[in-house]
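Researcher: Going back to the complex we discussed earlier. I've cleaned up the inputs and rechecked each line, so this should be the final set. Can you rerun the prediction on the complete assembly and write out the structure?
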Amino acid sequence: MPSIVKPRVAHPSLKRNDVGLTVRDYEGQMSTLCAGCGHDSITAGITRALWELSIPPHMIAKMSGIGCSSKTPTYFVNGAHGFNSAHGRMPAIATGANAANKELTYVGVSGDGDSLSIGLGHLCHAIRRNLKMLYVIENNGVYGLTKGQFSASADVGTKSKKGEVNLMAPIDPVMLALSIGATFVARSFSGDKEQLVPILKAALSHRGLALVDVISPCVTFNDHEGSTRSYIYTRQHLHEATESNFVPPAREIVAEIARQGGTNVTMHDGSVIHFSRVPDNYDVSDRKAAMDYIREHPAEVVTGILYADESVPEMHEMNKTPSTALAHLPYEKLCPGSAILDKLQASYR
Amino acid sequence: MPSIVKPRVAHPSLKRNDVGLTVRDYEGQMSTLCAGCGHDSITAGITRALWELSIPPHMIAKMSGIGCSSKTPTYFVNGAHGFNSAHGRMPAIATGANAANKELTYVGVSGDGDSLSIGLGHLCHAIRRNLKMLYVIENNGVYGLTKGQFSASADVGTKSKKGEVNLMAPIDPVMLALSIGATFVARSFSGDKEQLVPILKAALSHRGLALVDVISPCVTFNDHEGSTRSYIYTRQHLHEATESNFVPPAREIVAEIARQGGTNVTMHDGSVIHFSRVPDNYDVSDRKAAMDYIREHPAEVVTGILYADESVPEMHEMNKTPSTALAHLPYEKLCPGSAILDKLQASYR
Amino acid sequence: MRSGINDFAFKLASVNGTGSASSSILLMQAIFRMGVPVSGKNLFPSNIQGLPTWYEIRVNKDGYTARAPQYDLMVAMNAQTYARDVAEVRSGGYLVYDSTWPLDPDLFRDDVTFIGVPLARLCNENFQGARERILVKNIACAGVLIALLNIDEEIVEQLLDEKFSKKKALRDSNTKALQLGRNFVRENYSCPLPFHLEKMDGNKDKMLIDGNSMAALGAIYAGATVAAWYPITPATSVMDNFKSYADKFRKDKETGESNFIFIQAEDELAAIGMVIGASWNGARSFTSTSGPGISLMNELLGLAYYAEIPAVIVDVQRVGPSTGMPTRTQQGDILECAYASHGDTKHILLFAANPSECFDFTVRAFDLAEQFQTPVFMLSDLDIGMNDWVTPKVKWDDNYRPNRGLVLTAEQLEAMPKFHRYLPEEGTNVPARTLPGIHPNGAFFTRGSGHNKYGGYTEVPAEYQEVMDRLLLKHKEAAKSVPPAEIVKRPGATVGIISLGGCDPAVREAADIASKEGNPTDYMRIRAFPFGEEVEKFLADHEYCFIVEQNRDAQLRTLLLLETNVAKEKLRSVLNYSGFPLSARTVLDAIAAQVEELDAVNR
Amino acid sequence: MRSGINDFAFKLASVNGTGSASSSILLMQAIFRMGVPVSGKNLFPSNIQGLPTWYEIRVNKDGYTARAPQYDLMVAMNAQTYARDVAEVRSGGYLVYDSTWPLDPDLFRDDVTFIGVPLARLCNENFQGARERILVKNIACAGVLIALLNIDEEIVEQLLDEKFSKKKALRDSNTKALQLGRNFVRENYSCPLPFHLEKMDGNKDKMLIDGNSMAALGAIYAGATVAAWYPITPATSVMDNFKSYADKFRKDKETGESNFIFIQAEDELAAIGMVIGASWNGARSFTSTSGPGISLMNELLGLAYYAEIPAVIVDVQRVGPSTGMPTRTQQGDILECAYASHGDTKHILLFAANPSECFDFTVRAFDLAEQFQTPVFMLSDLDIGMNDWVTPKVKWDDNYRPNRGLVLTAEQLEAMPKFHRYLPEEGTNVPARTLPGIHPNGAFFTRGSGHNKYGGYTEVPAEYQEVMDRLLLKHKEAAKSVPPAEIVKRPGATVGIISLGGCDPAVREAADIASKEGNPTDYMRIRAFPFGEEVEKFLADHEYCFIVEQNRDAQLRTLLLLETNVAKEKLRSVLNYSGFPLSARTVLDAIAAQVEELDAVNR
Ligand SMILES: Cc1ncc(C[n+]2csc(CCOP(=O)(O)OP(=O)(O)O)c2C)c(N)n1
Ligand SMILES: Cc1ncc(C[n+]2csc(CCOP(=O)(O)OP(=O)(O)O)c2C)c(N)n1
Ligand code: SF4
Ligand code: SF4
Ligand SMILES: [Mg+2]
Ligand SMILES: [Mg+2]
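Model: Rerun complete. Updated structure for the full complex:
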């Protein structure tokens, strides 16, 4: 959460969007994440998507929980309102915020720890309410900020930095969301901005809750024994400062996932993930087909918009609220007045 | 939770199980639920299943949260240990209990409110840990004990006693569990003991967590406007004691679900549920097929054992604990002793 | 003793789920309409059907509405609890029982008059169907009481007309049942009993209503638009009522749109999260809950405190700890609310003493929450919240406008070079806030992590402390804005009684009795925390004070001890944590015992 | 002033994620092995890489290990914080900087000696690759300090040998880097500085370790078998260490089986639920967490209190409220822990003051939790938990056997007609419990709802109260079993200082200084709640007491005020809630200011 003010150089030649702003106007503070962290790439993607959609910065509400991922709202759209709340509670707080003011664009950023463990119930219920918001899970399989414990999305067989092997079945946010009726589900990879930005734009334009699971490698805690020589230095000695005390310089992993056949991407720890894209003729309106497609491709991480249904009313529609924000309704519309109170009280006898 | 001691008449002719006990020995206190509540039928089913499996009563741990359903452990196996804990936390408490003593048989009873709202995260993570236990959700679509609010399993379009219509997509515990890797998933109906008891027995014999979702009609709050004349009496007057103050006498709904074609069952509110059974050639070992089968039969409540996988290690196996209960390991096995402490401390310099 | 015209108490013992509460309420309403001050306590179990339940009704021409210490008449309709119920009748009192079956001779008492009415037989002979028979039995029983207690029949008939205006059949069977009961006693016993009712004019400007309804109405009038909650006894009916009122008063006639949103959350953590999110975004938002919910809200309450976000929490207290006794009353959440959350926190609490105050204080809770940008707890309890009280009608000033506190307008922001979230004007302790979406200059970043007065993230000690110190001053400052303690002085009093919330009727009655007995005491009813100067003064002015409250650990005393200058020895506790509403007798006995003790020491 | 041989302080300013903490610890270890009392405070940010971080090291031949008030030497390796760092050097002190790049002339100070070492250049010239260069720069810097402070080279070499026994290449580059730094200063500056190190024998029977390791070890030795937790700074390393030790000492050599289970829960609500479930079932079970976790555990802590289930919670406190400053230290959870949960509750707290006590008190926490069948909090804080302290080695008595409290055996149960869960023997307050599965006669039903002394469900006031009253007595009774306060008396003292936990070194040092200045004070270190008689006595025996603690709201003072007979005026607060460990200076200044104030009043 520390933030460092970024030097803002005005480039008069920069392209402007429909509200007259350049992409620089959608940037935030300087990131304090580890160099090369996948989350920073997602930040760049979100920045771009919001700019391309020409959403006025002050009409954006950036919501997050706690974690490295949840810090990132500081790093995009300085001119937006932000709420870095408590671990796991973002969906609940976003629900309240959205209830109060439907006029803003809600960008929720969370981590796999934040959303699949402590906040799992809230995520599922936000999905049920079909809250209109972009909900990004920056999914790295670990708890970054608390130094590398497994998250619930860690695959069976994954080794942690401490050498533990995960044996529990992962919770795949995509399958979970599909199984409980989510109306927009997508997956992407932090390193593929070409794919990510359009997905984010589609998600931001969705009628209800748009869940975007973005695989986002953690530079620092996705390493495993032996993969990186220098790590040994810090891991070796039992009696070590508990601060993660050396983070090797690393670079962001970038890869464009090929339309045909997909792409192998090597992670910081040397492991290889096969990313694929859903085929062009893929039907995003068939929930069962989406689940089938994912199950039929167990060896790869299927990316793209996996399911979208624009027919389901979002929370406000279900609740028939007026078109203006509840927060801004004039008090005169809200108070029944003394005459009604007197009448009502007269009936309590 | 109030309990009334039941008169215990000894029938010398009653059949005895392998540990020499009659089914009466597996009964509990007199139920204080509403007459006709589906939960009481499930209690009877659990009683029967435990008796048939000849599990010594004191080797049974009955775990529950809070709700009408969660009260039921008082109503079976008086001689077992019971823990009526806090709302939604049963899976967590059961996890700890199981961790401490793997030798007991864990019978978890919960409600759809208890497990699909406040306790949803704990349920999902207990499934991931594949905790060896029977986990029954007594699913009535409402919060019985707090008087009839919708639970997360209420279907779209359901009307509450107060006349509200539910618009949110339900969380189906079966689909949810299947999507996050549950190793045993079944569904049944409280009124069909013929089906329920064998399912419960299979579940109790499962290697890990066996989730059994039992549709269990709530007599009192599943009624909707107009269905039952007499209800009008209590619902009418705005200014009414908040205590649910009249509960009409009702009878348990009993129905045996036909193997072929299934069975229509009329609920207390006059609505009809079509229960079906999975076909005889149904393959319980195929997770994808299970999800498909359910999705392909949207108009009916598919019952039976829907998925079972005995190949996945349960929590203790994953953690390689000894065969005896951790709680009963002698202290001598646990304490490294002074010599090791001295040596260890000598190294901290 | 007290028994006589318009001054007696009776109790109805029954089984829950039979509709007995409805007929008890019918009687109460009738008595209320007769102009006689009345109070009713519904003592119900934590289940839905089939367990013992009681309804106590006290009538008192002088307006004392605390729980009655003993019963002149018992209506014992529950075989399961006969023995207990018989034992509770005062000597010289009466007991009504269902004589369809003979009563165990062991249960008879020489000093009590037994009135047998074959209610079951009468109903079975005259009605068909199990359902109907159960229901009408209660009405028949009401008929019995009409005769015995001289309850105005016309009023009862009118009540039934109102209740069943659209259900002729039900209306008719009710009348029939009423008459069955009434006629049987009239024919077989001399009616009315020596203590009974007579019309009077004791309920002017009063109504008969529960606190949860009034709290809900308060939220409506305060302009709350976002209600988020999770069901829990005894707080559920706050939200049930809010929803009903909102459906009635907040739906746009033309468009059918709802000028509110009502969210049943997945749990209490979510409920308070939603309230915080909505308040952050400028809506008046609230939740209602009870003890277990407060425990679960602890973490986020700290966030709201530290990030300075308004939040209104209506806490209808029940008996703790843990699940405790969910259908019994207590004042056990005082400390949990005052200091909720880890780290250094202090919250604003309001203590409502009756349904009318539930309304007033809920409205004020919203004003205070926004004025001080912090969580405000409106504390009531099961007794106030779920029982019907004879309570003054509240007045509404149509000139009232919400105090939204310092919220910058678009114009103000336009004229502002830079907005700093936590920078109050020189000499004040509450900074201005902005609402998202109002103006680009108002954008800021909210966080529960360390921040400086500009709103920036910090780990610098002085910057962190500066904000924390101001929060403390802000809380202190709120003492001037919360409802002051209510103080009743009596000439010659040197001792004070201090109490709060639902203890009020019992304490007032006790003080009156003591005064009549020559022991005048002053009385201070605490209505809010932080405490104002009047509280300090009252404490300073009295030799010692008895603090009457309904919990084991003297939580109000604790708060007074910690947050005023009072010396420890001054504060003596009178504690009742039985789960039942307080009676004047309990207060008097406890004080008498302590005074004796004090005298013994001084001697 | 204090500077001189084996009596000075220095600070290393760096960027986190560069490995600087490792080299700082290397220096501390070397100093420790030289026999010189030393303390180190790692002041790190709440992120993983790239932000300012500091490491403060104080050496003091007299064993004062509180945070040093000012620095004789600053190693300023972070350009971002130069200005701040330069300002913090004491007049007459020294500053080491990287002279690869010129220093902004504005930053120079006349009263400080600047020592430029071209560390980056040296490393770039001698090493390849960005990764290695970053790492060795810290070691080169350590070389500089070896020369300047006369740190024993042999010891450092030996430490490196131990550290890299299996990594020859790394070992070699470390030596090379060390020499680069050392040689450069030796050649360019006069070494050592006037203040520097000399071997002595000040660390006999001591070790250098952090509190979280020791708490973990305590859990191992206490026989804990079920560990459940959710990661949170600064408590995470308790569990990391528990896991490491358990893997080492608790794996069956023959079978490879683990005689423990380690569960990373989905959140803190689950973690405490697991502990309660496991304890209920007879395992020694614990969790470790920090403030936000305690808030989330509130509801279930009430369940454990009321249903009387043991539970051990290691709370490593950090700065609140809310997320606060996760990597800073505070004592802000005292009240939250003492009265956790809604309703009337009181818990047992232990306050460890150093790593050795973390071990002892964790062991005792298990004994107390089982003896009193209730949650017990072992409170430490970030400073104790995560910093390395020179702390006495603990002794282990091999005759120790866990105090499991009253647990009935199968034999006892066999001989028992009927077991009643909450029925203690006459005159005692702790009932016997049974463990599931032991014997059919031991089966009982546990609930958080109202229960009577037999364990049956109840809503009857007297039955409920009876259990609640006993719980209060039980808590009181624990005062005799918890670690008593540690009291240090000085002749002539009329004033007392009271403190707790990690304030201890600073308070001791302050008391020594005050005493030397002719102001003797007595000192009482509270080690547990409930308070024993010695606490009452100390309070009674002193005219007034200063209570030194690290939070804004005087939480220990609050607890003393509430739970002893002390008069309010006696207790005066000295508060430090900066997030940094306390120094003696802070204590002395605050006391002096208050004494002056008191004198003014008395004059
Ligand atoms: C109540 C609470 N418990 C624990 C923590 C500690 N904590 C901070 S971030 C985090 C996990 C973050 O993991 P994830 O959401 O995956 O984010 P990442 O850092 O991996 O991006 C935890 C456990 C906390 N802040 N609050
Ligand atoms: C923390 C907390 N919040 C709320 C409640 C109130 N409460 C008791 S039971 C219940 C819901 C029960 O619903 P379900 O689990 O479906 O059980 P059912 O009664 O329908 O069988 C609620 C909300 C509580 N006991 N604890
Ligand atoms: S620890 Fe991992 S997730 Fe966190 S900032 Fe560093 S690379 Fe990113
Ligand atoms: S309220 Fe419904 S769920 Fe509860 S006991 Fe009655 S019928 Fe059963
Ligand atoms: Mg993560
Ligand atoms: Mg239910």
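Model: Worth noting: Chain D touches chain A through 51 residues (CB under 8 Å).
Researcher: Good, that matches what I expected from the previous run.
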